[in-house]
Amino acid sequence: MLTIDKELYKKIIIVLFLILRKSRKNGLLALEEEIIVPENSPVFVYSQLDFKTDKILIDFICNILDQILNAVDIATLEEHVDCYIKNILNGYELFHPKVFGDLNSLLKFIWLTIKTGFNGHTPVVTFGLARLSIPLNIGISKEDISLWMNETVDNLN
Fold this sequence. Notes:
Elements: H1 6-26, H2 32-36, H3 42-47, H4 55-69, H5 74-95, H6 100-117, H7 123-133, H8 142-156
């Protein structure tokens, strides 16, 4: 079962940071190889997301990126993401009610991060906006996010 805690947020922040970094360096189309088979993607593998328990989050990220790569207009994408979040949450509300609120916050965090990140904001601003816009009861500070991004860059160099 999905456990939503600080460690999962760290993994999500790392994967989103790497996705945004790759798209800035190599262009948007470079992300196609990441989302076709995420299990073979260096970005998803590096983040250490679990392809069994975190699959719903990986699918959510890949679905949004696929829509962006296919040039879906923002209004349609907003509707699609809202619908997708509701469908995910409907399943969790029935079977895992304890996770419902935290999962809702996490999905919105992912969506807001992707949306602001692809609008040209720097990663620090992107994650800062997402962190401040969504009540994170897990206690992630902007210093945590900066540290995780810096560690990721250092490990990749």
